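Title: Prediction job returns without error message
Component: structure pipeline
Severity: low
Priority: P3
Assignee: unassigned

Description:
Job completed but the reporter wants confirmation the result is attached to the right record. Sequence as submitted:
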Amino acid sequence: MGAPLAFSVVVTNYNYREFVAEAVDGALAQAHAPREVIVVDDGSTDGSAGYLRERYGHDPRVQLLCGENGGQLAAFQRGLAAATGEVVCFLDADDRWRPDYLGQLAELFAARADIDFAFSDVALIGNESGRQGYAPAAADLGYTVLATWVRARWYGAPTSALALRRRLAARVLDLPDNFLAQWRISADNCLVFGASVLGAKKYFLPTGSVDYRIHGRNGWWHDQAKAREFAAQFRSRCLINHYADRMHLDLHALDLAKHEFKSRTAPTWDEACLYADIAWRGPAPWWKRAERALAILLRGLRRRKAA
């Protein structure tokens, strides 16, 4: 049996002095201990930097990166540059993990060498309660390139419930400097959209171990109306297009819709309809597009009846 999988935890903080210790302590208390906990203070003005130095400055498990305010994307990049683990997990300073979180991820990544990106459900705490998650049970999503490129589907979760193999994270966060201003907040979109379009295999793992805090200065993720506003959708579309350009995607990629759909182990009927639409948009002759779309719908129908 090989050595345990090494995890790097990147905690990003901006003016969350009242919460950040709970986040860092939760990362340090994991049953599957991370190789390192990297705390990036993004130019806080509430005394966070001094507090972090006092509390963790002599802890060899914690690396503190305190600097000027550059926004969330810049903080992700700074944290990743210091990471050495095989898998990188991101944690917002106002959230927290339960002790078994990294252990569950370690089991998945060790058993599935083909999985590049995993995301969890979250439990809402603070001003709200409840659960947010992609599905009621674990789901192997396979590839999500075309669904994200064509329809801007978001196969992910908030920052604190995302885990990427470090080689993938490095590709995803390799963005031009002009993106830093655009993604000062909500930079988990870069992780989620980027991983999809760059060809990552994704897996939804409901751990029940990520607490996502709603406290009046956040909470955008569960506000679906805000996510549908033009400005947010336009910004996301430009980001997706950037990754698509890097991958040299063109209309001929749409002819692969049936193959991407088949990479899902348990596709829903909604996904079958989505992929049938993508297949129909391709450049192949109409009869070939119809054949592919029908095959996708029939597979989705069989799955629907089986469920």
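Comment from assignee: result matches the submitted record. The mean pLDDT is 95.
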